[in-house]
Amino acid sequence: MLKNALGLACAMTLVTATANAAEDYPTRDIRMIVPWGAGGGTDGIVRKITDLAEEPLSGTVYVENIEGGMSGNGLIQLINAKADGYTLGALTYDSVITVPWQDMLPGYSTEEMDLIARITSEPDAIIVPADSEYDSFEALIEAAKAEPGNIRAGIQNMGARTHLTLLQLMDATDADFKIISYPGGAAPQKEALLNGEIDLALTSLGDFASLIEGGDARGLIEFTDVQSQSFPDVPPASEHDLDIQMGSFIILAAPAGTPEPILDELEAAYQQAYESDEFQDWLVDVGVTPNWLGRDEVTQWVGTTQEEIFATMEELQEQGILD
């Protein structure tokens, strides 16, 4: 009896301490891990919404960039951090799909995190130089069929998102491109496109927004079923009867086991920041689609997305299209 009473007392003390900590949260600076380099698209978006979330949180959130391992290095620090609300992280496509698919972190799963919200989605797109001979998506596909392997397509990491998007396009249209990989992301893709190393780049329109707005590049198609407000001249894939919807996204997360009241407070603060005119207008300016999902919805969405994309990748492997 005494042992049971002591156990109950300890449990009640722990619950009370957790509740008090959540009520006072935050009492110190919060760390936000961005598993990509400073100055990139993910970094800019996370910094912007985090700055706006500080006011409703009544606290300070600082961003720390931890590069490497296709987001894996940052993920390790996030999932191993204390689940007290003082370490958060930003997840992208690679964090949710590439890292677990390629088993880059043995034993890693998104279940090791409490997902707070999805804030944006960025469909992949095909971008060509402004003076490209391909004035439409149809013209590009016709040329790729007529000259198999001659048109140079610049993707990012082999086996990652942009590679998968291109493979699906080739499978759906019977077009054949020469695939060139630029693991450094959009920056080397931009340089390659401007220098004539490649005939097209495959990434988000937002990654190339400065070149498109400057008249140095243009988009031919965006792999989504929704017309972009930022790039109204670029048609979605659905207008070409293509059922390809691929792209990146940003999800905010905390280590699994973070107290529910703290997760609720973080979700509310980031949702307020997300819904602000300042953030919404800024996203349009940088060419990114706002796409909010709260805690319950984003967890279900991640599970469904993993299931669908993993099935697609397994099918491509069976066909010998994906190694």
Question: Could you describe the 3D structure shown?
Answer:
It comes from Billgrantia bachuensis. Residues 1-21 form the signal peptide. Pfam families: TctC. Keywords: Signal. The protein is an alpha/beta fold. The protein has 2 domains: 2-121 and 247-314, D-Maltodextrin-Binding Protein, domain 2 (3-Layer(aba) Sandwich), CATH 3.40.190.150; 123-246, D-Maltodextrin-Binding Protein, domain 2, CATH 3.40.190.10. It is 45% helix and 20% strand. The protein has 11 helices and 10 strands. Strands 1, 2, 3, 4, 5, 6, 7, 8, 9 and 10 form a 10-stranded mixed sheet that branches. Helix 2 (41-57) crosses helix 9 (260-275). The longest helix is centred in the C-terminal third of the chain and has 24 residues, at 295-318. The radius of gyration is 22 Å and the shape is globular.
Largest sheet: 10 strands, mixed
Helix segment tally: 11
Here the CATH topology of the largest domain equals D-Maltodextrin-Binding Protein, domain 2
Q: Let me know the CATH homologous superfamily of the largest domain.
A: Bordetella uptake gene, domain 1
Averaged pLDDT, please? 90
**Overall number of domains:** 2
Please provide the count of β strands.
10
Kindly estimate the percentage of residues that lie in beta strands according to DSSP.
Answer: 15-25%
Q: Architecture of the largest domain, CATH level 2? A: 3-Layer(aba) Sandwich
Alpha-carbon Rg, integer: 22 Å
Spans of at least 5 consecutive residues whose pLDDT stays below 50 are 13-17
Question: Helix/strand/pairing class, anyone?
Answer: alpha/beta
Alpha-carbon distance between the two ends: 61 Å
Protein name: Tripartite tricarboxylate transporter substrate binding protein
Family: Belongs to the UPF0065 (bug) family.
Pfam family, one: TctC
Organism: Billgrantia bachuensis
